[in-house]
């Protein structure tokens, strides 16, 4: 497995990834507050969270990686980031990782060890499962029993870890809707000034209200 390049502060600033000493205190505090709110919802227990956009390009990946980084701030907590956007995977590039395998490889092969697709990111206490090989019909993967097995496997392997799944837009593909059924909570990312009220309402309507933790405006 590739050993990641340790991202320095300039790298993180360029990628808009938060870290405890980041000069962008507004951004850091925004994600710390969001982390606190999610912990209140979960009664301070670990959880799995789907982060999806109201439309494509809403900024779900930006929200996912920074929320995971915020959980990793705490030395008593760890975070696992999973790139479930099989159409447009981006987290491995954002974190400067060249993966040999990923989520699709685990789902395709019943004998695949999940440990082979978990990568250190160079950010303390934060790990990544990349998307893996791109596929023409990614929703077929998420409907398979292997996806359920994947969720169970990462829960069992890391019972104290916060798991964040970055997905395609809930409006543009069935992927996010399928994943919301398998996870504890769902958060919707709404791009400022780029969607209509109807689009947001339709996106919210596709999420189980018992799992919906709210919409986040991404400016």
UniProtKB/TrEMBL annotation:
Write out the entry's keywords from A to Z: ATP-binding, Nucleotide-binding
Keyword Thylakoid part of the UniProt annotation: no
InterPro entries the record matches: Bact_polysacc_biosynth/exp, P-loop_NTPase, Wzc-like_C
- Among the entry's GO cellular component annotations, what is one? plasma membrane
Concerning CDD domains, the annotation shows:
BY-kinase
Listed GO molecular functions? protein tyrosine kinase activity
Q: What is the protein name stated in its UniProt record?
A: Polysaccharide biosynthesis protein
Source organism of this protein record: Vreelandella halophila
